[in-house]
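User: Sequence in, structure out. Go.
Assistant: Echoing your sequence, followed by the C-alpha cells.
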Amino acid sequence: MKYTRTTMAFAIAGALALSSTLVACGSSDDSNKGADSSSTTLDPNTKVTLNVVGLLPGAKPEAQQALAQEVTDFQKENPNITVKTHDYEWKATTFAADLAGGTLPTVFEIPFTDAKTLIANAQISDMQSYLAQLSYGANFNKNLLQYGQGPDSHVYAIPAKSIYAVGLHYNRDLFTKAGLDPNKPPTTWDEVRTSAKAIAEKTGVAGFAQMSKDGTGGWQLTVDTYARGGRVEDGKKATLTNDATKASLQFLKDLRWTDNSMGANFDYDWSGINQAFAAGKLGMYTSGQDVYTSLVRNNNIDPKTYGLTMIPLSGGDSGVLGGGTMAAVSSKASNNDKAAAIKWIDFHYLRKYTSKEAASKDAETQVASKQPVGTPELPIFSQQQYQQYQEWIKSYVNVPLDQMSTFTSKVFDAKLVNEPAIATQDVYKSLDTVVQAVLTNKDANIDQLLNDANAKAQRAIDAAG
C-alpha cells in the first residue's frame, strides 16, 4: 500500500481534508471558455490554474523551498499555467469522502491498489491521449502500468513515484548501544526477535514496532504473511486463516507478551511510526524502502542512525510485498485542466527518469534545499533506464547508501508480490483489529480472530464483484 501509503507502497493510509476552496478541483481561468473542448493539447494562450498535491503535512521548510522552486521552474516553462500546491497525505479512512466531496486537488496521488475502483466509479479521468503526447509514454513498466488501466486498456492513473518493496528499517545507534553490530542486521525472524529483545533490555525503548490502524496494520501483516510464504487472497477467496499469517501474529504476540520488547505504543499509523523511529523511540519496523525521504523531510532523522535491510524471507513461496503511488486527475477536470495536468505530471514526477538534463536539474534543486537525493526505489520504466538515471544523479547523491546495501544488493533477486487485488483496503481493515487485539490482549485467540476477519474480508470481496 504506502504511499508516499505511501506506495505499488502501498506504501498506506488517506487524504487529509483540504480547503473548501478546492471544490471544483482546481479550475481553468475564464479565458478557457472559448477553448476547443475536444483538444488534448493546451493552447499556450490559454491560462489555467492547476491545483496539485504537494508535500505531507508538516514537511520541513527546506522541503517546501525545494517544491516552490520546482513550481517556479515549471511556470517559467509553462507561463500560462499557474500551479497551486496543497499539503496531502492519502488515508484510507478519509480519501473516499474527500474525493466525493470535491475537496481534493485536480491532480492527486493514490496507491496502486485504489485505481481500479476509482476507474470503475468514473471518479478519475481517462488520460490515455494525454499520456501519448509524452515521448516516453509507451515505455512504462507494463506490470506497473496495468494497475492504472481500465477495461478499455486506456490509462487513467499513471505510475509516478514511491515504487517500493517493503524492507526492514533499523536504528544503527540503538543496535550499537544494545551490543549488536549495525553492519550485520538481522536476516531471519528469529534474529529480529533476538535483536528486538536486546534493544529493549539494554536501551529501554521498543526493539520492534508494528503499524496497527487505518489499514496499515493489515498492510504490514500482509507483508509478514508474504515473507513467510502465505497469501491473504486466492482469486476471489479470502485466505486470512493461512499458516503464515498465524505465524506472523504469533511472532508479534511473543515479542509483545513474552519478551516485552515492543514498548507501550500499539496505536501506530504510517506517519506516527515514522515519527517515533526518527526520534529514536524504536529500534526496528517494516515499511516501504523509500520511506527515508519522508523521514528526512518530515521527521528530521539523523542519517547516521539509519539502516535499511531486507525483510527476512522464509518458505518456498515467500516474497516481498511491493507497491507504489500513481498520479490521477479528477473526473471533473476540463480538457484544459487535463492538458495542464499531464505537463505537471511529466515535469514533477517523470521527466527526470528519461532526461539527463531534467535529472540533474531536479537533483540540483533538491541538494540546494538539503533534500535527499538517491533514496532507493524500484524502476517505473525498465531496470536499464533506472540504472541510467542513477548514473545521471550519481554526483548528487547525499543519502547513506552504504547503510542500505544489505537491502539494495538483494532486493532485485527477491520475488516481488503484489498487494491483494480485490477489496484491498477492506481486507487490510479487517486485519487491523486482529493486530490490535494481539498487541493489547495477552489472551487473544489468534485462530478465532482470523476466522472473524476472514468472514469480514470475504464479504468485502464478494461485494466488490
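User: And one key feature?
Assistant: Residues 256 and 439 are 6 Å apart (CA to CA).
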